[in-house]
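Hey, I'm writing a tutorial for new members on how sequence and structure tokens pair up, and I'd like a real worked example in the thread rather than a made-up one. If someone can provide the structure for the chain below, I'll link this post from the tutorial.
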Amino acid sequence: MQSPTSAEVQYGWWNRAAGSTADRSPVLDRSGRWCAQRQHENIWHLAGTTGGGAVERTCTAPLGLPVLSPLVTRFGEAADCETFMDTAKGSATLDGAPLAAETLGATRIQLFGPADDPFGAEPTGENTWSCGLRVRMDPPTPGSHELTIRGEAGGPAITVAVDHYLRVAAPVPTGTV
């Protein structure tokens, strides 16, 4: 299977993030309770934060899916992305081993969200630009993993610190009690 393009990655991640109401938002979630909320079939998206302090989340992900997580990200005007990316930096480790960060430059996306989503997206959709630093991982092996995410950027200042305690397991077959 071919890797998704920058536009596909950014569209998928932002529409997952903005597609939930604030009370079920995976981005505002402090524990991991909404980790499986609005996941896609071909990639497991982990949430960052809005920059409001460190978060520890516990999450169970299905076996066999690649994982994507932002280090730091934003949407807005193309010029906002240019300024943001000039100061963006971040790092990630999986079980203590460093992961390569991927730069996703300003990309035009359409963003959809319910009336009370945490990002102010329009239910009818709005054209915007997205950019950021992310990590994409091959499907993790079964078992427990720790994914540590750190990111920051200025204009306005954003600091992201998320520790994901990820359990990778085969899905329960349909009809099983």
